[in-house]
């Protein structure tokens, strides 16, 4: 909780939300991420716990959007101030 509050006090925090299976597809085979060597059940639990923290971001966007759409949404929020 402290880290999120610190980030939020410094600027806009954006969470690019992704489904668990998509996350595993993208990151699960990366040998530089030893945390991902846990069982699927352990990873799901950790994913859900972290998702609750990340949901406190100023802005949550669907990571399946096109990069241009993500940028557009972030810019809208930045322009509002």
What can you tell me about this protein's structure?
The chain has one domain (2-80): 3-Layer(aba) Sandwich (Rossmann fold). Helix content is 57%, strand content 10%. The chain is built from four helices and two strands; from the N terminus they run H-E-H-H-E-H. The longest helix has 15 residues, at 40-54.
Which characteristics define this entry?
81 residues, mainly alpha, two-stranded parallel ribbon
Task: Quickly name the level 1 CATH class.
Answer: Alpha Beta
Going by helix content, strand content and strand pairing, the class is mainly alpha
User: What integer is the average pLDDT?
Assistant: 93
Radius of gyration: 14 Å
**CATH fold-type name:** Rossmann fold
Low-confidence stretches: none
Largest sheet: 2 strands, parallel
Shape: globular
- One letter per element, helices H and strands E, the order comes to HEHHEH
Number of strands: 2
List the helices and strands and how they pair.
Elements: H1 2-10, E1 14-17, H2 20-27, H3 40-54, E2 59-62, H4 67-80
Give a short synopsis of this structure:
The chain has 81 residues and is mainly alpha-helical.
């Amino acid at each position: 909780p402290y880290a999120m509050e610190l980030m939020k006090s410094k600027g806009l925090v954006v969470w690019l939300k992704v489904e668990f299976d998509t996350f595993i597809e993208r990151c699960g085979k990366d040998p530089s991420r030893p945390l991902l060597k846990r069982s699927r059940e352990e990873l799901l639990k950790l994913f859900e716990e972290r998702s609750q923290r990340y949901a406190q971001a100023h802005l949550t966007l669907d990571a399946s959007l096109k990069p241009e759409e993500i940028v557009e949404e972030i810019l809208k929020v930045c322009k509002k101030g």
